[in-house]
């Protein structure tokens, strides 16, 4: 029989069940246990998937014989569980975000680096499944190939994250500083923040404008506008909210060789005949535009995508020692830096420079937790289809 990786799953909420639904269909995986602090939930899903229920992650670590763990608990739990897993020599696939704040992310990465000294082949992945989406992969390919030349602007409006008050009321941990650690930047947008840094790298300076509970009865941000300055001269705009319907997912990337626009399942390249930067210096015509050609970029949408693809890469990396992952766990620090930076800029009403003052942000977060006055009435009944929450 082919080698199978013994995996445990921690967290059986909405996203945990998403993982559970594909894990039992992977031929090279043995699900040796599921864990949740709600005993009835753990028992039910363990029975449904012919595995063992655990109610504390340490019991799963000590009794199941697992080799790897998928961490799908609320955000603050990512750090202590991942650190202890590395200390025990376990491979880790963490849900997003890597942590709530940069200091915790660095602690997780330090634990991983220490574990690598004992086992150089230990695998650390993060669930950035949107990197598997065909249009984003094509955009990455075009940018890496230099098709646009020098980049001058990137504008991403992604307001396709609509959430009702009922969604926020579905758990007393949701949309609180103590329970979740933030709002749209911490919950919905880690994928977008990762995608921005994956495509363009981190900016040098951030100006963030976050509105706290502007449209919902919550104590965290539900609308954000951010402005980025990169050392190469490129500027970026990032606009997100959970209160816009119909929402928009439009990305414009401008370079000297033209403009790339992604929206509504179409990727268009307005290809310049000559460099804009060259033309503006050399043209003798005051009002002339660069000649450009409309080109719809073909994108293969038939390849598999999503959580299963990320998990398959993770398992294969364990079996082969290849370290070939969709996203390495250490990469989670970059998008988190963007998110923390936006919020710190907004809190201080100032433009901030990277590297981020991680201690200042952690201290601000502690103050928000300590002074929280949020009292939520939890709604028990909520219709949830997690597939509806994954943007394209």
TrEMBL record:
Gene3D superfamilies: Dihydrodipicolinate Reductase, domain 2, NAD(P)-binding Rossmann-like Domain. Residues 136-260 form the GFO/IDH/MocA-like oxidoreductase domain. It comes from the Bacteria. Residues 5-118 form the Gfo/Idh/MocA-like oxidoreductase N-terminal domain. It holds the Pfam family GFO_IDH_MocA. This is Gfo/Idh/MocA family oxidoreductase.
